[in-house]
Design a protein that fits this description.
The complex is a heterodimer. By secondary structure, chain A is an alpha+beta fold. Helix content of chain A is about 30%, strand content about 15%. Chain B has one domain (about 1-85). The model of chain B has no long low-confidence stretch (mean pLDDT about 95). The chains are: A alpha+beta, B mainly beta.
């Protein structure tokens, strides 16, 4: 069925960009290139209030009871029976389209979990990245974070650091760092979904209210190469490069340049376009005429 | 005497460069700073902290990149530790 959503591009275009199949707009809610570029730059994608109230209510009840485990590597299509909030959540076209755009069709479940910030618990989680250090240059997992109820500023909505996902750190080794300029302290309406790159720095904030704050987390692993899985009709829109060139306020002056360099490399991997660059950062430092010389 | 600790992460290795990150640890026990508790840094630069009476007691070393890892990004590089000592009643 997947081929229904592809068409081969013209020979002229193929010669210019190398052989590939162009992903076209479909009835699926695939992300645009600009949206995926934003994900590559920021490390997350927010979908505010996209889950209907009935599903949110079902989710809150299920999260309070606790969830049955899902074995590592279970195909997503088999992980959640019909009638569960998980199935409803993943079947929402806007969620399904975003997931497919980032990790492709047929992802597997790594794990899922209920995260709770208890009332007046007095402290926040240390800033961290999940799992262990993960520096794959041509693949990434996504974590779906779902908030079934409204999260206010006092409720300890997730702290996350835009643009932190390509930093090579191991779990809570960054716990010493409490605040960074431009950090996001999540507030959101009920039914919000945030998809994050596996490397994003984040943590549950202190809940200063009398109400438990729930978050459902689902980690998904790709099973296909993560190459142009989205709607690529706008692949060469200048807004793509503009998104990838985003600078965040917490970046050190010099390291911020390396961030852009590394994003350009990731975009090359996702598009199989070895000529892509931003402000010549990669091209300049990989220019080695001696290797091309036959003298 | 109790120690108040302020950690500032700066934009460059210069102490008078802008603050990009910050942490507080309060040895008096009067406050409980924690992750994600403020969006605005306490000072604009490291020098501003000195001007307000904080004493610098550690600065991160300048380390050259490891060969083969010149483009890797990781921890914030320019970390400065400051302290203030405060009189407290015995606890």
């Amino acid at each position: 069925m997947e081929n229904d959503h592809h068409r081969t591009i013209s020979a002229h275009y193929r010669a210019a960009r190398g052989p590939y199949v162009r992903r076209m707009p479909t009835s699926k809610h695939l992300l645009t290139s600009v949206q995926v570029a934003r994900f590559v730059a920021q490390g997350f994608l927010r979908l505010d209030g996209v889950v209907p109230r009935e599903t949110n209510e079902r989710a809150i009840a299920a999260l309070a009871e606790g969830l049955p485990g899902v074995p590592y590597g279970t195909p997503l299509s088999e992980a959640f029976p019909p009638g569960t909030f998980g199935r409803e959540l993943l079947d929402l076209p806007v969620v399904a389209g975003a997931v497919e755009s980032l990790v492709g069709p047929g992802p597997t479940v790594d794990h899922h979990a209920v995260h709770v910030r208890e009332p007046h618990e007095g402290h926040a989680q240390d800033l961290h990245a999940d799992a262990i250090i993960d520096v794959r240059p041509d693949a990434f997992d996504i974590q779906l974070m779902y908030y079934p109820h409204e999260v206010t500023a006092e409720m300890g909505g997730t702290l996350s650091v835009p643009g932190s996902h390509l930093r090579r750190i191991n779990e809570t080794d960054i716990g010493r760092v409490q605040n960074l300029r431009g950090q996001t302290r999540l507030t959101c309406p009920a039914g919000t979904v945030v998809l994050v790159h596996h490397g994003i720095w984040h943590g549950g904030r202190r809940n200063d209210t009398a109400r438990r704050r729930y978050m459902y987390k689902l980690r998904l692993n790709p099973t296909v190469p993560q190459v142009r899985l989205w709607d690529t009709a706008d692949l060469h829109d200048p807004a793509v490069t503009a998104e990838l060139d985003t600078h965040f306020p917490w970046y050190e002056q010099a390291t911020g340049r390396l961030e852009i360099h590394n994003r350009a490399l990731l975009w090359r991997a996702l598009t199989v376009d070895p000529s892509f660059d931003i402000e010549y950062w990669v091209t300049r430092v990989s220019n080695r005429p001696a290797l091309r010389s036959h003298a | 005497m109790r120690q108040q600790v302020l950690v500032l992460y700066l934009s460059t290795s210069a102490l008078d460069s802008p603050v990009v990150g910050w942490s507080r640890y309060d040895g008096t026990g009067r406050t409980r700073p924690t992750a994600g508790d403020s969006d605005e840094p306490p000072y604009g630069t490291g020098l501003d902290a000195l001007l307000d009476g904080w004493r610098l007691f550690q600065a991160s070393q300048l380390l050259p990149p490891q060969s083969g890892h010149e483009y890797d990004v990781s921890f914030l590089k320019h970390e400065f530790f400051f302290e203030k000592l405060e009189e407290t009643s015995a606890r």
